[in-house]
Design brief:
Radius of gyration: 20 Å
Number of strands: 11
Structural class: alpha/beta
Strand content: 15-25%
Number of helices: 11
Helix content: 25-40%
């Protein structure tokens, strides 16, 4: 099964007609399989077509040699790379090999933009960007929030960050409502008692994705208290992902924002 979408095949055909590539190269790229076997991993190269965005790399437990092969395969397929939970040591080894890569040491993410000759060929990302706002209850929640922010940026969304507006000082949230009320989706990252998503949900008309964090004292049970609080939210537009799952929150927000943007762009 071919992993290329119609827009990409047309773009490749135009390069063939323009003499930029040979007929053999055209045939090779069109017939590329949807699964790349690199030994330690079976890369799903068809995921962007099926699910909207390409496969994401979970760095924890992987060697840099394996990640290098994964990254090169994704880039050769014209995809932008996102890796999560990457250590500073892993990033230090990979950055010289991928000089266009960007490492976020707080969010522990690593992004590599798609090759210049493939930029703009994905019709799923050619519309105007959707809007995502990431909100943190406290500064201790920032690592999870940065993972969410980097993920949402990778999906092509326009992302705003609103920091340190937890329920202990509710006036801080009210001062930033204009950033939330213009969003297609809001990601709320909170530890302790996890009350902030419910409060945010009462102010906005878009989905609110609660991300509980493991921040808190003993009775927070490593984020379980915040998770249960968010699951029991009476705000009907609040949904919840796993503890410290900034990637999942940012990914879902990016999907929502992309779909909302596509709907706005329809005649």
């Amino acid at each position: 099964m071919n992993h290329m979408n119609t827009h990409e095949i047309e773009a490749l055909a135009n390069r063939l007609l323009g003499g930029e590539i040979s007929a053999a190269e055209f045939a090779r790229q069109v017939q590329m399989p949807s699964i790349a076997d690199i030994g330690e991993a079976q890369l799903d190269l068809d995921r962007a077509r099926r699910c909207g965005f390409p496969e994401v790399v979970f760095s924890q437990g992987k060697t840099t040699a394996v990640m290098e092969r994964i990254f090169r395969t994704l880039l050769e397929s014209g995809e932008e790379v996102l890796a999560t939970r990457m250590s500073a040591e892993q990033a230090a080894e990979l950055l010289p090999k991928f000089p266009t890569g960007v490492y976020n040491p707080i969010g522990r993410t690593f992004r590599i933009p798609r090759p210049a000759d493939r930029a703009g060929t994905d019709d799923l990302r050619s519309v105007r960007p959707g809007r995502v706002t990431v909100v943190t209850a406290g500064t201790s929640d920032l690592p999870v929030a940065e993972e969410a922010r980097e993920t949402a940026l990778w999906t092509g969304a326009e992302v705003r960050m609103v920091q340190d507006v937890g329920v202990a000082g509710p006036h801080r949230l009210r001062a930033n409502l204009h950033h939330l009320q213009s969003a297609d989706a809001v990601v709320v990252v909170a530890g302790m008692e996890g009350a902030l998503p419910s409060v945010v949900g009462g102010y906005v008309d878009c989905p609110v994705i609660g991300v509980p964090t493991s921040v808190g004292y003993g009775a927070s049970f490593g984020g379980v208290a915040a998770l249960l609080s968010m699951l029991n939210s009476c705000a009907a537009n609040v949904t919840v992902v796993n503890i410290d799952a900034g990637f999942k929150g940012g990914y879902i927000a990016g999907l929502i924002a992309r779909n909302a943007s596509q709907k706005r762009d329809r005649p």
